[in-house]
Structures are given as C-alpha cells and as structure tokens.
Amino acid sequence: MKQKTIGIIAVLFAALMWAMEPVITKLAYRGSGFVETSMIRAFVITLFTFLLIVIARKPLIIRDKQTFTALGYIALMGTLVADLIYYYAIGVVPVVNAVLLGHLQPVFIILIGYVILKKDRIQGSDYLGILFLMMSAMFVTTKTIDNLVQFNFGSIGDVLVLFATITWATTALVTRKYLIHLDAATITLYRFAFASFVFVFLIPFIDLSLNIYQILVGLIVACGTIGYYAGLRRLKAAHVSGLELAAPVFAAAIGFFILKEDITLLQILGMVLLFIGIYCLSKKEGTPIKNHFEERIS
Predict the structure, then answer these.
(1) How many Cβ atoms from other residues are within 10 Å of residue 64's Cβ?
(2) Apex 121 CA angle, 120 and 122, nearest 5
(3) Secondary structure of the chain in the HEC alphabet?
(4) Cβ atoms 108, 244 nearer than 8 A
(5) Average pLDDT over residues 24-46
(6) Which of 23, 32, 172, 257 is the most exposed place for a label (fewest CB within 10 A)?
(7) What gap in Å lies between CA 182 and CA 176, rounded to an integer?
C-alpha cells in the first residue's frame, strides 16, 4: 500500500476519533469540569502511549535538543494552551461557531506553511480538495441553509477559538518540519507527558473526581492523535488538516445510524463533497501552482 494512501487512512481514522470525542466528553462533564477531564485525559494518554512504546520496544529517550524543543512546543501550545482555551470557549460561544472557526485551520496552515514548509508546496487539486472539505464540514455542521447564513461572529469567545485554531496550525507545522522522523506514538507520548507534568501541580487545587468516561476520552484521543501524527509523517500538513474536516461528517453518520437522528439535504451534500475532496487530495502529485506560473513566465 502506498504511503500516501496509508496517510489518508490514518487521518480519516483520527477524524473518526475526533467525531466520537465530544459525545464521550459531554458524558464525562456530568461528574467533573473541563480542567479535571483534560487532566485525566492527559494522564490516560501518557500511560497508554508509554505502554505501546514499551511493548513495541521503541526508544523512549530524546537526546536531540531541537527535537526535544519542538516536542515541548506542541505540548505547551497544543495541549496546555490551545486545548484549554478551546474547551473554555465552547462554554461561552455557540458550538457551531466554535466548530466552523476550528475548520479554518487548513487556511492558516497554507498561509504559514508557505513560508515554513517550502518543500510542502501544494498544487491546484490540493486547493480544490481542501475547499471541498471545508464546505463539507460547514454544510454538515450547519444542517440547513438558514443556519448557514445566520452566523454572527465577533465575540471574545470567537476570538479565543480563532486563537486556538491558529495555535493548532502552528503545532502541525512544527511537527511536520522538525518531528517527521519520530514515531507517531512517541510524539503523542511527549506531547501529553509534558502536559501531565504540569497538571500534577494542579492536583492540590482542584477536586479531582474520576469517572469511566474520562478514561474513554483519553483512549479515544490517544488513538486519534497517533493516527493524526502517522498521517503527518506521510502527507503534507495542509492535506492532514483538510482531511481532519471529515470529523463532522462522521459525527453526523454516527448520529444517523446509532442515535437515529435525521440528516438534512445540506448534510448529504456535505458528505458528497467530503468524498470529492478526498479524491482531489489523493490525486498523484503534479506541478505546484507556484512553479507552474514560474514556468509559464519564463
């Protein structure tokens, strides 16, 4: 199987995990707050990935200073900053606003990555695929045309979600640039082990209550994060971020088949656009747009 195909499957698996995460998280919140749940999640992920690495007999110690610094960055900014800000913002803004602003991540990856990841230049079909995936996520999330046109962005909560989105984009780019040589489980371990170390100091100040749903959230996020980083090793950062937008489609499918929820025509259109977007991203690499224009000018 081609590495690009493996990468697509890995990221779609991660998207499926992200679709399941909010449902289990809401159940976890019934017995604790978002800080406690985030803490238990980090502990569970750290333990789970540590056991995976030990069983697989893969190296645990990172001696390279640049690699260690990059791991520290994604732990600090991705887990301790962006995750906590996003979960706080969900409580003060409509969920649909948070979801749609979170779906802008591919845009920031393209803009920032154009400077940072010069080897990850993307081609015309990549732009088209990411556009289809963003439209797919918006259609599935909003459900109806009326909902789609009635958004009102501009609150502090929206700004916080946007900040979290940009921060996640930078962690994806850092991973792609500096950590592509590491195993996905190793990256996941260090990201949440660093966060767990910080969370330990918060234990005396909070009422730490444990429930089974917090553990399930940890296992789901662990599997999803490993799939995500496995995809980043094989795909461009913009591809991975775009494919992640399959999560709302998977969530709608879970709601339809398991929870017996209705699916609207706009959501069906969004699902169709998902497959078109995946097809565009899976096409054979061609000439990047920038190089194509340069060739035409010369």
Answers:
(1) 12
(2) 110
(3) CCHHHHHHHHHHHHHHHHHHHHHHHHHHCCCCCHHHHHHHHHHHHHHHHHHHHHHHCCCCCCCCHHHHHHHHHHHHHHHHHHHHHHHHHHCCCCHHHHHHHHCCHHHHHHHHHHHHCHHHCCCHHHHHHHHHHHHHHHHHHHCCHHHHHCCCCCCHHHHHHHHHHHHHHHHHHHHHHHCCCCCHHHHHHHHHHHHHHHHHCCHHHCCCCCCHHHHHHHHHHHHHHHHHHHHHHHCCHHHHHHHHHHHHHHHHHHHHHCCCCCCCHHHHHHHHHHHHHHHHHHCCCCCCHHHHHHHHHC
(4) no
(5) 86
(6) 257
(7) 10
Sign of CA dihedral 3, 8, 14, 17: negative
CA dist., res. 129 & res. 50, Å (int): 36
pLDDT, tens digit, for every residue of 42-57?
Answer: 999 999 999 999 999 9
List, for residues 150-178, the tens digit of each pLDDT value.
766 667 888 888 899 999 999 999 999 99
| Cβ-contact 24, 213 below 8 angstroms | yes
Closest CA to 133 of 249, 236, 228: 249
| Listed residue (3, 10, 51) closest to 227, CA to CA | 10
Q: Is the dihedral of CA 162, 247, 281, 231 positive or negative?
A: positive
How many residues are present in the chain?
A: 298
- Predicted TM-score (pTM) of the model is 0.84
Both structure tokens of 39: 């803490």
Span of 14-23, 119-128, 242-251 with lowest mean pLDDT = 119-128
